[in-house]
Fold this sequence. Notes:
Helices cover 46% and strands 19% of the residues. The chain is α/β, with parallel strands linked by helices.
Amino acid sequence: MTIVFRLAIQYAQDVVQARQRTREIAQQLGFDAQDQVRLATAVSEIARNAFQYAQGGTVEFCIAGEPQAFLMRIQDRGEGIPHLAEVLAGRYNSNTGMGLGIMGTRRLMDFFEIESLPGQGTTVVMGKTLSKRTPTFTDSQLQQIRETVVERSPQNPYEEIQRQNQELLRAMAELRKREEELTQLNQELEDTNRGVVALYAELDEKASSLQQANELKTRFLSNMSHEFRTPLNSILSLSRMLLARMDGDLTTEQEKQVTFIQKAASGLSELVNDLLDLAKVEAGKIEVHPSSFEVSDLFATLRGMLRPLLVQGSSVGLIFEEPEQMQPLYSDEGKVAQILRNFISNSLKFTEQGEVRVSAVQTGHTVTFSVSDTGIGIATADQERIFEDFVQIESRLQKQVKGTGLGLPLSRKLAELLGGNIALKSEPGQGSTFTASIPLIYPHATEFPTSLQPLASLESTRLPILAVEDHPETLFIYEKHLQDSIYQLIATRTLNQARQVLEQLQPAAVMLDIMLEGQNGWTFLRELKGDETTRTIPVIVITIIDNEKQALALGANGFLIKPVDKLPLLNKLNTLINHNQPQKILLIDDDPAYRYLIKQLMMNTPLSILEATNGLEGLNLAQREQPNVIVLDLEMPEISGFDVLTQLKSNSVTESIPVIIHSSAQLDAQTHSRLAKQSIAILSKETDSQAMAIAQLEDALIKAGLVLNA
Length: 710
């Protein structure tokens, strides 16, 4: 923030001076005449309040932000505004004026913030963003504007009042002219209104007829689909019985005929199912059941389900790329799977050789699923038609494959139902890529998959982190970031809820969103840092606007810009909570080679490393030295790592020490699940490379709360 000019309000004429200076600086910054008047009027109104109610104050003119904005800060040391909430809501009736000064000023500005504390005065910060056509002002240009304003001698206050009156007269003339134009326009509108009303009535009648026809069609499809299912299931069951020779053998010709019947019934059953799904979507009766799931698990399910579609000996490969650094989705897994099944089966049908590749990439709060093939491709003219019901594009492969022409239309409707969309890129002979962009969190979810617990049932072995955030989606992401770490989330969506939590416990840190709807996060930050009981709690300001300097100036200990990734957030928490504290890591492993290897991996970190050659020595060291984290091998003589872990967690002195299991033991699913509940991470000694081993160990240590940067 660069201060261009500062003016003291001590006398009545200083209010006029403030108006003059505002217009001069606004002109220098490239604002047009209308915006100059708006800015000058806003400043004079608030400055007059400061003089009238607080007997004076100061006005600062600043340039700040990116893009740059012209900010004006008017500050006084009066008694404050006792009814500020009512004033901002437009409900206050003033005894000394109209009571509309602050409200009117706020409407004139792009940015307006007011803070008023009893006995401490009032601060108003307001401003307008510079035009996009205006080049960014450098420090030297701002210094030149400052010198120009300082050198310019003050004008006669009465001339300024006369100019203000002339501006009002021009504004009134302009309003009168617009009123005449509005009167003429209203007359013209009245002349055409009857015809428009009649047209709307006709359109409403046709829309009603179309809606009734659509409802009839949907009801017919739904009812007929259900009616078709019973005989179709009977045909399929009977044909399977015949082909299984349950009632005697079949001739070769009979077997061929029954096989044709079964294939026809199977195709018709697929068509009926698609019709029923379409009817449900169009009728709005299909329900979305969101749940939390991993993309890697979804791909594993699809891989097993769709591999049978590959013809034995086929030259087409079905490849699923393993997603990297992907957050869990909170959406309808079944519907996402249905979309991808339709894409993949379509690609397999129209790909003779090459591959069908399935992948997923997260961008912000959206996951984009892609299914790419090396098939025959789709002409540009047909790329929109394939999403129409029952449309099948003529090609040399069309007669060899069966389809209903409903899979892609249904996929598009399902994607839109989940809040996403579908896109297609294709060239004839070059293959096709179908993409489905699905929100990370289903936008119409009423509940989110948080495991947030009442304060009374928080885990004693994990450090509480208070989050003040009014968006439930962001709280959900925070919880996923802190999952499996030494921290646990306490979520609050209002400042009052946060204050109630602080009355009951002292969190290890506070994550504060400044841009809270209808609430002032800056005031809460000052409140935290001004209270003896809370000033030592580290506060991380997390917001979408880059105002780090202001946050740090008000006492914040850290600053992050949304969206926040997992490791930067954990690193910031670790740094603030463990600031300048010694960090000790205890290695419990009977193999000296592995202890040496871990010491080499941690060579460039500021950690003190303790070693124990067996379980008993490790338990004694853990109790005596209280390390920050324990790295434990499972397979040791005398006392195994399993027993060591049990004793660590049953001892009140060591139960809260995070444990990282580092072993080459092969664990079954049940054992792995049990150990995961008692440890921060389970790492295998058998890694492909040293770089991967370092990355895995560092990630686990960060989850355990350690600061690895010296």
